[in-house]
Amino acid sequence: MTPISDPTYANPLCDTDRLTQELGYDNSRKIIAVANQKGGVGKTTTTINLATALAAVGRKILIIDSDSQGNASTGLGIAPSDRRQTTYDLLTRGASAVVPMATSIPGLSIIPATVDLSGAEIELVDIPDRHALLKTALDELAGDYDLVLIDCPPALGLLTLNALVAADEVLVPLQCEFFALEGLSMLLNTVERVCQAYNPDLTVSGIVLTMYDKRNRLSREVVDDVRRVMGDKVYQTVIPRNVRVSEAPSYGKPVMLHAFHSSGAQAYVHLAGEMLRREAAQRHVLQGAA
Ligand SMILES: Nc1ncnc2c1ncn2[C@@H]1O[C@H](COP(=O)(O)OP(=O)(O)O)[C@@H](O)[C@H]1O
Ligand SMILES: [Mg+2]
Question: CA–CA distance from 131 to each of 58, 92, 221, 241 (Å)?
Fold first, then answer.
């Protein structure tokens, strides 16, 4: 696990910046679905903070808020009254109906969500290719971005299916609690089925353990268990439970802007660095094979 007291954390953004220079720039467009059918495991928090960390090192990022609760939109300070073109419009009317909104973070845009999205599952039920609506829209939109992160709702319904069909990779946040692994096999089965039916290149890129409490023996046991079962799919960086993370959305800011030096913010910067390293390693393998 990454020790949060590690002195290299002193200026984590610079560290990520240096990393990008060291590892080179990956200009391949990528779409990542942040998914777990459980609620409250850190999907939205991970989406917002990874996006912020990667935007800070020059990547052009788009967040698709695909949860009718609109927490990603709120967490980035987009008031409900300002959400005029939303993920609902994107799904029902296509890419031409939506211009992504800029956020206060340079390089980070979002397509926000409102409660309208809760009706989409039912309204779209008779549409042929209803599983591929987001993919079709992103085929048009995603070229403008280095990375698209889809913040999925807490269910394996049509919205998550659309995210998995559109995505290259799935990132799974798992909360460090007793039932962490429960439900993971159902999610992995769903990914497998989507892979077979619609999206053969879809992979689970990683699992990120969230809300880790170092004083809690159970938290430590969960980390060991998940690593034993899922091996190197699990990111080394573990996100600690940190009050700054939980209060940040009420300020409409990612924790990295709300409390940059908090353990939660620094862990997310470290996670972004680990993602960049993995990406670079993968690229080298691919280049070696070519
Ligand atoms: N590392 C953390 N430490 C403390 N609170 C957290 C942390 N990560 C998430 N939270 C809080 O837990 C709740 C659920 O997180 P969220 O990211 O919204 O989960 P999900 O999107 O999976 O439902 C939110 O109130 C969020 O602020
Ligand atoms: Mg959420």
Answer: 32, 12, 38, 35
Alpha-helical runs (H) found in the chain: 12-23, 43-56, 71-75, 87-93, 117-123, 133-141, 158-166, 184-197, 217-230, 243-247, 255-258, 263-289
pLDDT at residue 15, as a whole number = 54
The pLDDT tens digits of the residues spanning 228-283 come to 999 999 999 999 999 999 999 999 999 999 999 999 999 999 999 999 999 888 88
- Whether 119 lines ligand 1, by a CB cut-off of 6 Å, is no
Query: Which residue's CA is the closest to the ligand 1 atom numbered 9?
Result: 42
258 lines ligand 1 (CB under 6 A): no
State pLDDT tens for residues 102-153. 999 999 999 999 999 999 989 998 999 999 999 999 999 988 999 999 999 9
Residue 54 CA to ligand 1 centre (angstroms)? 19
Contact 24, 57 (CB under 8 A): no
Domains of the chain are 14-283 (3.40.50.300)
Quote the distance between the C-alpha of residue 72 and its chain's center: 10
The number of beta carbons lying within 10 Å of the beta carbon of residue 77 is 17
Largest Cα separation within the chain, whole Å, is: 56
154 ligand 1 Cβ < 6 A: yes
Atom of ligand 1 nearest to the CA of 173: 22
Q: Is 250 in the pocket of ligand 1 (CB under 6 A)?
A: no
